[in-house]
Design a protein that fits this description.
Oligomer: single chain
InterPro entries: Auxin_biosynth/cation_transpt (IPR050982), FAD/NAD-bd_sf (IPR036188)
Family: Belongs to the FOXRED2 family.
Number of domains: 4
Subunit structure: Interacts with SEL1L. May interact with OS9 and DNAJC10. Interacts with TXNDC16.
Function: Probable flavoprotein which may function in endoplasmic reticulum associated degradation (ERAD). May bind non-native proteins in the endoplasmic reticulum and target them to the ubiquitination machinery for subsequent degradation.
GO molecular function, one term: monooxygenase activity
CATH topology of the largest domain: FAD/NAD(P)-binding domain
Radius of gyration: 32 Å
Structural class: alpha/beta
Number of strands: 22
Amino acid sequence: LGLALYAGSLCAASGAAFLYHDYCVIGAGPSGLQAAYFLQRAGRDYVVFERSHAPGSFFALYPRHRKLISINKQYTGKSNGEFNLRHDWNSLLSHDRRLLFRRYSRDFFPSADAMVRYLEDFASMLKLHVQYNTAIVHVTLERDEQAWNGHYFLLTDQDKQNYKCSSLLVATGTWVPNVVNFPGSEYVEGYETVSINPEDFAGQTVLILGRGNSAFETAENILGVTNFIHMVSRSRVRLSWATHYVGDLRAINNGLLDTYQLKSLDGLLEGDLEDLAIVKDKKGKLHITLRFYLENRNTSAGINSITLPQDELDNFATRAPYDRVIRCLGWKFDFSIYNRSLKMMPGKGDKKKYPQIKPSYESRGTRGLFVLGTASHSVDFRKSAGGFIHGFRYTTRAVHRLLENRHHGVPWPSTAYPITQLTNSIIKRVNEASGLYQMFSVLTDIILLRENATAFEYLEEYPVGVLAELETQTGRKAPSGLFVVIMEYGRNFSGADKDVFYYNRAVGEAQHAWQSNFLHPVIYYYKRLPTEHEMRLRPPDWPLPRPDAVHHIVEDFLTDWTAPNAHILPLRRFLENCLSTDLRNFFAESCFLFAFTRQKLPPFCQQGYVRMQGLVGSEGLRRHAIEASLLEDYTLTDFSGSRPPDSHEESQDQLLRDHAIPVRPLQHLVNAKDE
């Protein structure tokens, strides 16, 4: 009977109508809305499924104490919108300046309620195609050689409505609470349900399981009313200012570190949570013991029959009973809705809470299935900001560009420049680009050399992990070599055990730029595109394989890499050495002289002066060049008693009539100083 019913349900399902879309997005959180924005701007057929009645449902509940730890910097001293996004960790990318988060909150650490309002406006003002109150409960594949990826994705919602898509974008985030099962875990309260009223903890002794921001957020809320708080986790506390990873403990929540180190009763412990056990006594107090003490014991006989650690070690750290135990262990990805045919497998080790994906954010098991947002953080876990809005807004854009090239023949956006603009282009990007800055070591700018290094093509924010696939992923060719521009911290500067405030921690001289510790630009040069084999064999902790040449721009206290001698000049000389050319800028008279004295003109003269391009001369510009010792002054000031000319044109005429321009040696005419 069961087989018959199952077969009947399959027949009914196969006969049900499918609503088709080219792209299906699951989840209307920040990453889902960001993907929808790019799809809509490109005019694609898409739909976003959201199980709640409004976007951003995660932020309607979390963080429980309603304060975000993503910064919302109102002022930077600059009006450059791209630069300001470096210090705006909440805004999504759009063309509408009304949808900048600073218009929703002025708090440096804003309320989660402001994020909920922001996401609602983002969806409604941009008229994104979001289908609310639609919970996708099952996803499977249907093989079809005519489909984009050789199969369609079949989705079923809670009302048994079926949908068919060519590409699936999973933007559900990580929302399933991490739970550790051990004897007595039924007495543990979860972060998702525990009271947020401090008065409920007055005079109580509390144990918190976990040591991330949610654990410290919970502790901070009750710090002033409890007897004491203990925190236990399997690893030591990691401070974000030491690891340079924004997912580690932030200063806004670390008040308990003060009370611990200043001996005000609170404390931190390390231990494997799965080895713990909790026993409840007749008074309702919770005692911490170890699992092996409970093995082969009759726990129903009461606590008096159970050996506690303090029975053998009278100074056992957690010998005092607790009133409450709170679990704050974070979240994991929900794998339950995906059929085996999709091969959605969890990662390994610390990444097991995320699905396995490639550096292109595509599932390792299924072509055409991309994971966006927090759930895609396995690509840069504990390295960069890909698990947070200020990181995945850029990786989502990168995925969209990959899809545009794959399915619609739209190459990765690029801009072509003459080679004379190479130095300026790099300096401009490293000083204002927010994607490079936030997704350091993950997203890169690619410079493809063209026409015997007389021109180049500039591609922005390409995923470094798929550099070997650049030609197929972008629709751009790299026949003549390339530069890769990336932002990096120093190799040995970040870590939970690092002292990042040690004396002489900063490098200030250009010749020692390779020893820079703080975030700084690094330029890699390759004579040919690296292969997949070379990418796999790259040195540990290197984002790229060994290049033919590499240049570090020295770190800067102001993150302003515009100093002529410390930043620009060493970069220009590095580029010149790689290309065997002269990238300096020249005045017209120098180009004029080179035309008579050299067999080959510098690129600036070839592409500017010879083509009658460049700045139009004026008296003000000439005088400025003379005062800066960039040009010789050939104008004679002795007018032999005659009236000074009224204009620049009259002065030129009078010089030609009455005075001979003195002859100077040719070397005095050559002026190749940098602009």
